[in-house]
Every structure is written in structure tokens, then in C-alpha cells.
Amino acid sequence: MSKDALWLSIRDEVSRTAAEEPMLASFLHMTVLRHKTLDDVVAFHLSSKLASPTMDARVLMELISEALAADPVIMQSIRADIEAVRSRDPACKDFSTPLLFFKGFQALQCYRIGNWLWRQGRHALAMHIQNRISEVFAVEIHPAARIGKGILLDHGTGFVVGETAVIEDDVSILQEVTLGGTGKESGDRHPKIRQGVLIGAGAKILGNIEVGKGAKVGAGSVVLKAVPPHVTVAGVPARVVGVCENDSPAEQMDHRIQEPLA
Amino acid sequence: MSKDALWLSIRDEVSRTAAEEPMLASFLHMTVLRHKTLDDVVAFHLSSKLASPTMDARVLMELISEALAADPVIMQSIRADIEAVRSRDPACKDFSTPLLFFKGFQALQCYRIGNWLWRQGRHALAMHIQNRISEVFAVEIHPAARIGKGILLDHGTGFVVGETAVIEDDVSILQEVTLGGTGKESGDRHPKIRQGVLIGAGAKILGNIEVGKGAKVGAGSVVLKAVPPHVTVAGVPARVVGVCENDSPAEQMDHRIQEPLA
Amino acid sequence: MSKDALWLSIRDEVSRTAAEEPMLASFLHMTVLRHKTLDDVVAFHLSSKLASPTMDARVLMELISEALAADPVIMQSIRADIEAVRSRDPACKDFSTPLLFFKGFQALQCYRIGNWLWRQGRHALAMHIQNRISEVFAVEIHPAARIGKGILLDHGTGFVVGETAVIEDDVSILQEVTLGGTGKESGDRHPKIRQGVLIGAGAKILGNIEVGKGAKVGAGSVVLKAVPPHVTVAGVPARVVGVCENDSPAEQMDHRIQEPLA
Amino acid sequence: MSKDALWLSIRDEVSRTAAEEPMLASFLHMTVLRHKTLDDVVAFHLSSKLASPTMDARVLMELISEALAADPVIMQSIRADIEAVRSRDPACKDFSTPLLFFKGFQALQCYRIGNWLWRQGRHALAMHIQNRISEVFAVEIHPAARIGKGILLDHGTGFVVGETAVIEDDVSILQEVTLGGTGKESGDRHPKIRQGVLIGAGAKILGNIEVGKGAKVGAGSVVLKAVPPHVTVAGVPARVVGVCENDSPAEQMDHRIQEPLA
Amino acid sequence: MSKDALWLSIRDEVSRTAAEEPMLASFLHMTVLRHKTLDDVVAFHLSSKLASPTMDARVLMELISEALAADPVIMQSIRADIEAVRSRDPACKDFSTPLLFFKGFQALQCYRIGNWLWRQGRHALAMHIQNRISEVFAVEIHPAARIGKGILLDHGTGFVVGETAVIEDDVSILQEVTLGGTGKESGDRHPKIRQGVLIGAGAKILGNIEVGKGAKVGAGSVVLKAVPPHVTVAGVPARVVGVCENDSPAEQMDHRIQEPLA
Amino acid sequence: MSKDALWLSIRDEVSRTAAEEPMLASFLHMTVLRHKTLDDVVAFHLSSKLASPTMDARVLMELISEALAADPVIMQSIRADIEAVRSRDPACKDFSTPLLFFKGFQALQCYRIGNWLWRQGRHALAMHIQNRISEVFAVEIHPAARIGKGILLDHGTGFVVGETAVIEDDVSILQEVTLGGTGKESGDRHPKIRQGVLIGAGAKILGNIEVGKGAKVGAGSVVLKAVPPHVTVAGVPARVVGVCENDSPAEQMDHRIQEPLA
């Protein structure tokens, strides 16, 4: 979808909603309709979420605008994430709903700002942003973690991602997933999630292990060993229970799994 | 319990608390004691929880009052839910505590307002309410889901309920439960939970499957297939591990399960 | 670590941060640098978190100061918890970060205040504090539960602890853990967690059962029976899968477990 | 003007403004357009002004509604005041502007609520309302003072009215006017302003003296003696400087005065 | 009145009000009843008034407590001011009303805190306090001005006091009074108001001139020359119009004046 | 003073204050030090003052920035006003204090934004801004009034300016001044204040009359007839009492006047 087409779709959707629902009209005008670019909308809306007595909404808005201007990958990722939610979540019928109302989506975009601050060496401010994300969205992504684009973080409640975790592009992750470490040694100690992986609700993936490209992790699984590409794992602890039926389980969002081998 | 008896009990309890704890006296007076009906208390207290810079507490209070007046089933359900918490949660010794302080209860009642809005076709406002529920309570119930009365939603953190899910009357649900979909097709795709079911903490139930009347789903289970009535299922993935010992496990709140067949 | 050494380390760390990050300078000065004791910092910062239209930040600050003065065990526990986070969480490189930014840590300390109120017989105020903890941190610890010192509550999202639960000293608990009851009878009905235990992410421990000293509960486990000291349990339901490799798994934070016996 | 005609005019004006100025659309919808009666608009808007951490906007709104229902003279007075502003203030081109934006008008209507509370014997609440009026509008009208209808309080800044003052119908009062007492004895000690009087900016009228029907008090005058009907007084101290040219100087708003007799 | 007697009277009055008016009960408990000393009440209530997004209420409360402890004259002055209002203002029937609800009184006490900061060399913080006083109370007293005790500042709206002004003990000042400078030279350039003076509403006193002990300045006067002790001045510009009938016009509050000599 | 020199002076002053007063450090950083231009500082600080539940601070900030960019005369006027305060007010020892802390100055600059909105035809928004100015600063300048640059509005409390008033450059105006209309006819009906005029505290100037270049209006005067250039008027009503001693009384700020001719 072209950059302009996405922005125009969002504006059209929001214009219709503003006309139908006067109680939200000024919120929608203030947040979306009066802006010239999607970047401005993102800076405005995320700053609404992160504002607190410790950090003024205007300062946050300018900080986010600065991040979006300095690192174009952030907006590319946000655009890809909007399209991922629209495409993969059947409860999402348009492009503006995740932007305005889905807290998994919003938490992920706030992380992207904290991650940019971390990369600039502003660790204390990044930790403050993370603290706000954890309070507002119940999501805890360490600002040093690396996360690609085209991510669907569905609901997101309880999502925990460690400092050295990596999530590649086009991954779908349901609620209550942990990408955690193991042991008290520092260094590289968190999972690496490769492209196209689907991680079911409540799954815990622990340690510096790889979940291979196109793999599927069943809901409620506890993964303690590397997962090969294009397989399904399930169970506590997780075992391979089948070959993954399609190249990108993240796209298919099929959470059914075969029975584990008894 | 008669309608009046419940309201009088709540008033009595709150009067005693207001006399004992002056720091909460005005809160209790403002929220409970000055009102003439339980409906007014509900409208006032839920609007306190949902208010935000986007939506004024007074507008929300009037909206909730409008919903309660238009659809009497909402207040019937709220009354039944209060009695369910009081009866089934041994940590709950009175009727006013869930109303005032239990976020699982409050999140469920806020959903009932969002659901009424959804049924009126006010989808954007319903999504806004759901967004607030997700931020304040860490609960995500799609406003189109259908939920009966006499529900105990204990704690509620992480509760996720999909668009086409159904929960019948007299169900008890612990924290971190998912009633999710599977696949990216729209249409009827979420679980149907029949009367009297008990769902343990952390259970994930996925797909358009039925959990039969009086069944029990063990904590941490991942349910991917229909569950017959009056059985206990447990495990990842869940299997039948026994017959359910009583007609309404939701009433008994006995989370013990037999060992799965090895 | 001596009492003074901890306070001096925190001041030093925060002074450096305030100099580097002017956006946080007044927050850090107001919250930490202008105070003479760590007790004052705790009273100030926790009151920032718990404040709401129902309860003014100044009243909460004075209430917390009163609790800290009346029961010295609270500050001893808070100091031990800070050192526990610093020592066991490899993502935590200093002493001030958990104090300022980690919501698991903050939720636990707010519980300590609510627990003191409960012990004074101020149950309604304790429930109000618990309600705020549940909204701000998505943590639900019943104020009557008893929790020792040297606790690492990592992230904490979804943590649920019942009324008669006990957690002894030097325990580490990851996110989404439940220490729950079973059945609808009141009385002693929740788990007893002995010293040095490590509880992995998502574990559910249900009923009046003991998890013995130095035991390890694997991530995602559902524990329905007592766990002997110095063993590892895992699975749904949990079984003994090995002897615990060291005396204090809480210190080691090693979440790897052996395969369960098939 | 009929009761309905005023309300319809206000709605029409506000509808046009909401369409032209999206930044104010939700404010206007929330405050005016969604309501069924002018009474509801008054209760909503005045409660917006008086709300503070001490007194919730919803409680104030219900209190104001209660006052308006109990004493119909209040709304009659408010309607007459709106028409007075519209008719006498050439800068006011419609009916909705004083209601929405003129602080002199709003302060006077808030006084009417405080006065009703005073008459119910709720003196502390009336004093709280007066305290808020003084902070928000810089207006101090003792809640026991008696004020008629058809009053234009233009700007209102610094307006001070004592406990036993009386203002009859159809009076116009500019900013910085004092109707004060003299001496430290209690009892009837403040001015009585008869119908149709015009009081210019900065005038001070002190003591239990009468300003007769249709009189005019020049700007900056200090009035220490009774003023006969239908004369103009001016100066420090004020003297009669002429006959009042028309029956109702309050209607004419002509602040010109003859030279005092030297 | 003894120190204890005043505090006990205030507590008694407030206890009665809290029992009668439940809407204010928690405000009164929080602000007055839970405190052990009048100093604590002052620190709490003034910090409620001065709090803003720039300066947290808790920090202000501690700053005010610090000022009251460091300079006992401040509390002596506040106590004397309460008694002055009670004694001289016939609309004030008790001791708690000025403390809780009179903005002239509150503005004066906030100035005393700003003045203490100024004397400590903390000029920027003193200017911030003055800025808040000007916004909340519409009062502008330069923090370097010197003001004695037993002052009645009635209403206070528009009160302006310059940097080098002095007000001695037992002075009564009505609303809209200016003690201003003249010319653009710095140095001592503002009025000196001696003991027992009464200044009527709207009076402007300009320049480094003395208003002698026991003098009375009529309402609306413009004073440009020194005023001898025990005379009454009035007019624009002010002239001596009589001998002052009693030793302390501030106590008598008699605003009547003789006619100026024509 | 060159544009850059003023901005550099302000930054230097504020940097010193931020180093000395940590309680204000983040406020000063947020409001001044992090910005690149004085325009940004103005947009940020005025939006702090005007923000309310009706209008978000970020929207106001962007609106103010838009106004400053569209009409360069606004910033020229603000710069000239800062220099006027610094030059004419002996209590003002630097350039940053009026900008940060003087409400007369701030109210005037907020009017300039409302005036720009009025000139764009956005009358409702201009009235909303004026309503906020009146509540925050107790100043009421009709947004259609025309005001030049180099204005000292000292304190400003009670300042009232009508719709068709004109204030030319280099005028000084003390508190409680009215530039009002007379009569109820619309059309040009307010005073015209020519260059260099000084208007003393409490003066009321009424009607479409001219106060000539370099004239001085004494404190407390009531001006009902045109004032020739370079004279001093005083009294109620005002008469010519002398020739003005210097070309620009606004610069000299000498409020002394000759005695009126008896």
C-alpha cells in the first residue's frame, strides 16, 4: 500500500466516524483530521498516551517528532504494523482502529520511540518511557530489544521482552507472551524470533534460543530449546508437534495445533 | 436476594465504612451514600473509572444511565454478578467491596456498557470504551461479545474475549483467560462457554468450540477442541481428565483436577 | 550492604542522571535528590504512583511515612528487595532503576503499605490501595497476604496472591504468577512459598500447599500438590523433574528445566 | 422572548459554530447540543467552571440540577440575564456567547446556586462555591446577598457584594464595583440597589443606603449616602450631578455624566 | 487568644461542619481534622492552592513546613490575621472560614511564604509563588515587600503591592488597593503604611510616602502625598477631610468619611 | 536590541536560574532552554497558561506557532513588550522574568493570539481564548481591539478593553484600567489611546474619545472627554491638571500629578 494511500484511507475513515459520533468529533479532529501527515498523528496520539505529571505531552510530542524525523525506519515500521493488524486480525475492519484504539499496537509504537532514545544513549529517558508503557499498557519491552516491522502484537497484555531479544519482520504475537532470559549472567541471553513466526497466547520462550523462520509456537507453550524453521511446537515444555502448514504462520493466524506425541 | 435487599445491604456496609475511615468518607458519600438507587451508584462509579481527557466523567455518567434505563438486563446482570462474587469468592465478605474495589468486576460492567453501545450501532464509542477498559483494567473484551449474568470474573488481568465469543450465565473465570479465535477469516470463530462452567487461571480456549454446561477447564490449560458437558479438561493441549464432580463447578470454585492420563 | 551505602549509591546514580538528562532533572530532584533519607524517597515516589482523585498524593505520602516509621521491617524489606533486583536481574545495572522505574518492584512496595494498613484494621483503606495497585501495575496481592524480604518480583504483570498466601524471604517470582486458592470455603487456603524458591513466568500454584525451601517451579507450570524442598517441578500439572542444582534457585534465576518424565 | 425560542436560538447558534470550528465541536456538543433543555446546559457548564479536586464535576452538576428543579426562579433569572446581556451589551451579538464565554454572566449564575444552598442552610457548601467563584472569576458575592433577574454583570472582575446587599431586577453593573458594608457591627449594613439602576465601572457603594429606582452611578464614584430615584451621581464622594435622562439607565448603558457641580 | 485555644476552636468548628456536610467531610478531614497542629493545616491548605503542573503539591507542602519551622513569625502572623478577620469582618462568624474559604486571607499567607523564600535568596522560586498567587487569587504582592501581622486583607482582588512597600501591624485593607511606585528609578519608592491604618476599597497610594499611624484612607482615594497620623483622607487626589475618630480605624472598619472641603 | 541579543540574554538568565534552583530546573528546561527560538518559547509557555479540559496544550501550542509564523508583527510586538517591561518597571531586573512570571505581560500576549484568530474570522475560538485569559489572568481584552507594540501592561488585573478600542505603540497601562464604551449602540464606541500615553492604576476611560499622544491619565481618573496631547488629566471626572513634563510619560512612569484646579 502506498504511503499516501494509507494516510488517505485513515483520514477517510476518521472523517466518517467524526460525522457519526459527535462525542468523539473533537478528539478525532485534534488527533487526526487537523494534521497534514501520518507522522504528526503518531506524534500526537502516542504523546497523549505517554503524558504524565513527570513528562508533559508537548515535550513528548516534540521528542517523538524528532525521533520520526531522525530515523525513517520507525514510520516505515509503524505503517507496516498498521497494515499487519488490518490484514491479520479479522476483528479489525479498517486502518484507523488499531492506530486509535488497540493498546497492543500503541505499546509497540511507544517502544519504538524508547528504543530510538536508547540508541541515542538517553537510557534514563528510555527507561522512563518504558515505565509509562508498562503502566498504561501492561507491556514491558526492554528499550534495547530489537523488533522489526510488520508486527502484529495482538492485545499485548503481559508481553515481556528482554534486553537482548530480537524479533524479525512479519511476526505475530498474541497476549501474555514472554521472550525472557535465563540465569543471572549478563550478555546475550534472550530469544531470537525469525521472520514469519506466530507465537500463541501465553507462550513463554526463555533463553538465547532461536525460533526459526516460519515456525509456530502453540498457545501456552514453554519453549526452552531452539525451534527449527517451519515447524510447530507446543506443550510444557514445548516439543515439535508437526510441520508448519504454510510459509508464514504469522500471516495465517491459525492457532490450531496437532496433538503432541504422547 | 430482592432488589431492595441488595441495595440496602450495600448502603449499610458503606455507611459503616464511611464512619470508620474518614479518609474515604467523601468518596463513599459521593459514590454511594447520596444516591437513591443502585443504578445511580453504578453510573457514577463506572464513569469515574472510564473518564479521561477524551471523555468527560459527566458525559459518561449520563451515557451509562441512558444504557441502564434502556436495557434493564444490564442492571439485572450487574446485580447477579455482585451476588456471584459475594457467594463464590471467599475473600469477599460483603456486597460493596466488588462494586467499589474489584477490577475484574468493574471491567465486566464497563464492557456491558460498551456492548450496549455496540448494539446501538455506536461502534466507535464502543471501541473507545474498550480502549479505556484495556488501559485501566488490563482487560480486553470485544464489545460485540455476548456475556450472560451471574459471572465471576476474578481479578481479570489479561482477560481477552473475541468478537463472536459467548459466555452464558453463572460462569466463573479466573485471571489471564483467553477466549480467542483462530485463523484470519472473519465470521463466527470464538468459543461458546455454556452455563456453570469454571475456567481456571491462565487457560486459553481457542476457536469456535463449545465448552459444555457444567464443565471445568483446569488452570493453564490450552483448549483447542470442544469440551463435553460435566467433564474436567486440563493440560496443554487440554484433555478430559475426569467427570465434573458437581453440577456447577463455577459455584464450587474447586480448581483441583485429577492427573491427566499419562 | 550498609544502610548508608545503599542510600549514597542511589544518590550518586541519580545525581549523574539528573546532570545528563535535563528533561528528568526536576523529577529526579523532587523525587530523590532533595530528600535526606531513603524512607522519604520511598514515601514520595510511591505516593506519586498511588495518587488519584480519591486520595491526594500528600495524604498518601504522610500515610506511607507513618507506616515506615511504625514498622521498621518495611524499609528493611524494601532495601533487601532493591538489592535482590540489582543482584539477580542482569538487565538491572544499578540500585536506583528498580526504585524509579520497575513496576514489579513498585507494586510490591505498595502492597507492603496496604498490608500495614490491613494489620492496623484499616481494611477499607487497604482495599483502596490494592485497587490502585491493580489499576496502575496490573498486580493483585491481597493486603492480608504475608511476604518476606529480598523478593524479586520481575515485571509483575498479572501477579495474583490470595489472602492466606505466605512468601518467605529471598524468593524470585516472574510475571503472571498466581498463588491462588481453591474451593469456596474461607480459612487457610493459599500456597506457602518457602525461602529461596524461584517461580517461573506464568506458573499457577493453587491451594494450601507448600513449595519447599530452595525449590524451582518451571515457567507455565500448574502446581496443585506440595513441592518438596530443593526439587524442580514443571508441567501442567506440575511434576518433579529433577533435583534443584543449587541451594537458592531464586538467586541463580536459571529457568531451564529438565524434560519431564514422559 | 418565549422559553422555547431562547433555547432554540441558542441551539441554532451553537450548531453553526460547531460546524465552523471543529476544535470546539465536541465541547459544544458536550456542553450544549446533546442536551434537551437549557436547564441541563446550565447545570453542565457551570459545573465545568466550579469543579475542583475538592468537588467533583458530576456532583456539582447534580447539585445544580437539584437547585434548578427546586427553585424555578433561578432559571427564570438566568434566562432574563441572558436576554439582558444580549440586549444591552453591543459587543454581544447572540444569546450563546454570554452563556459559554462571559465570566461576569457565569459568576452571577454560580452565585445563584450558592445562594440557593445558603437558603437551604448548607452554609459551608455555599462558602465553598463562593470560594471557587472568587478563584475562577475574581468575583465575590456573599451567598446570602439577594439579587434579582435581568442583571447585566459586565466582565465582573473585582465585583464585591456584601451579606445584606440587595439588587433588584433589571440592573446593570460594570466591573470592579463594590456593594460593601461599613463598620464592624453585624446586621443589615449593605446597599440596596433598586430597579433599573446603572452602576459604572469601579464604583464603590458603601453602607446600608439605597440607590433609588432608575438612578445612575458614574464610573469611579464612591457613594456613601442614599441616592434618590432617577438621578445621576458621580465623584469621590459622589454627589448628584443631574437628572437621569431616561427611565432605565441600566437599559441605556450610557456612562456619560454631566460635570459635577464645582 | 492562646495558641491552643485558636487551634481547638478551629477543630471544633470544622468537626461540626464535617458532620453536617458529608460532601465536604473528606476535604475537611484531609485538610484540617487529621492534623496535629495548625502549622500542618496551613502547610497542607496553602499547598493545595499553589499546586500546579510546574510545582507538585507535596513539594510545596514541605517547603511551606520548612518556612514555618524556620521563621516562627510567619505562624504568629497567620494566627493574628485569623483573629483580625474574625474580629473585624462582621460576615465572618468563626475562625475556620477565613482559613478555608477567604481568598484575601489565603493570598496574604501565600505571600508570607514567598517572602521567606525571597529572604533566603531564592528569588526565582519566590517569583513563581507570586505568579501562582496572581493567577489563583488575582493578588500581586512583590515578595520583597514587608507586611506585619494582624492584617485584614478583605477579598483582596486586584491588590498590588510594590517591592519596597511596608505595611505595619494591625492594618485593614479592602479590595483593589494599590501600594505602588512612581517613576522608573529603582530604590525605595513605595508607600509605608503605619500601624492601625484602614485603606478603603479601590484606594491607590503611590510613591515613597507615609500613611501615618491610625489614619484612614477613604474608598476610591488616590493618595500622592504623605498622610499624617490619625486623619482621614479622601478624594482624587486625596486630601485631609477630618480627624480620625478612633485610635485604630483598622479595627473599627468604618468606611464613612466626611465630605471633602469643597 | 537585536533579535539575537534578546534571545541570548533570556537563555543566559534562565540557564543561571536553572542551575541555582533545581525545583524549577525542568520547568525552565522544558519551557525555555531546550528551544531554538524565542518563538518556540512563547508558543510553549502561552499554551501552558491557556490549556484547559476544553483545549489541549499541544493544540494550543501549534495554533500559537501558526499565528507567530503567519503574522511576524506578533513576535515583533512581544519582543518590544519584553523590552518595555525591562526598561520601564524598576522591579524587573532582567528579560526572562516578565516572560515567565508576569501575568500582565502574559495576558497581553495571549490577547495577540486571540486577535489573530479574530482577524482570520475564527471568532468562536477567539472568544474561547478570551474566556481563558479572563479566568487565568483576570484580564478582558476584546479580541477585536487593536493594540500596538512596546506596551507595558503592569499587573493587568481587571484590565477591560472594548471591541473598538485602539492602543498605539509605547503605551504604559497600570492595573484596573478600563477602556470602555458608552451606550448600547454598536459601532465605533471605545477610546483611542495614542503613542506614549501613561494610564495610571484604576483609571476608567469611556467612549469613543482620543487620549492624545504623550498624555498622562492620573490614577483613579474617570475620563469622559478627549484628552489633548501632552497634558496630564486627573480626577473624577478627569480634567487637565498640567502639561506633561516629558515627551513619553509611558517611558517615565511618573505617576505624580499636579493638584487639580479647585
Characterise this structure.
The structure is a homohexamer of 262-residue chains. The first copy, chain A, is of the alpha/beta class and 262 residues long. Chain A folds into two domains: 103 residues, serine acetyltransferase, domain 1; 118 residues, 3 Solenoid (UDP N-Acetylglucosamine Acyltransferase, domain 1). Chain A contains nine helices and 15 strands. In chain A, the strands form three sheets. Chain A has a six-stranded mixed sheet with strand order 3-6-9-12-14-15. The termini of chain A are far apart. The interface between C and E is small, with 9 and 9 residues.
Alpha-beta content class of chain A: alpha/beta
Low-confidence stretches of chain A: none
**What name goes with the CATH superfamily of the largest domain in chain A?**
Hexapeptide repeat proteins
Subunit organisation of the chains: homohexamer
Q: Report the count of strand segments of chain A.
A: 15
Whole-number tally of structural domains of chain A: 2
By CATH reckoning, the class of the largest domain in chain A would read Mainly Beta
Task: Determine Rg of chain A (CA atoms, Å).
Answer: 19 Å
* Helix count, DSSP H or I runs of 4 or more residues of chain A: 9
Helix content of chain A: 40-55%
Report the portion of residues of chain A in β strands. 5-15%
In CATH, the architecture of the largest domain in chain A is 3 Solenoid
N- to C-terminal separation of chain A? 46 Å
Write the H/E string of chain A, N to C.
HHHHHHHHEEEEEEEEEEEEEEEH
Biggest sheet record of chain A: 6 strands, mixed
The CATH topology name of the largest domain in chain A reads UDP N-Acetylglucosamine Acyltransferase, domain 1
Greatest chain-chain interface? Answer: A-B, 45 and 42 residues
Q: Taking all residues together, what is the mean pLDDT of chain A?
A: 95
Spatial strand order of the main sheet of chain A? 3-6-9-12-14-15
What gross morphology of chain A would you assign?
Answer: globular
GO cellular component, one term (chains A, B, C, D, E, F): cytoplasm
InterPro entries (chains A, B, C, D, E, F): Hexapep (IPR001451), Hexapep_transf_CS (IPR018357), LbH_SAT (IPR045304), Ser_AcTrfase_N (IPR010493), Ser_AcTrfase_N_sf (IPR042122), Ser_O-AcTrfase (IPR005881), Serine_acetyltransferase (IPR053376), Trimer_LpxA-like_sf (IPR011004)
Pathway (chains A, B, C, D, E, F): Amino-acid biosynthesis; L-cysteine biosynthesis; L-cysteine from L-serine: step 1/2
Protein name (chains A, B, C, D, E, F): Serine acetyltransferase
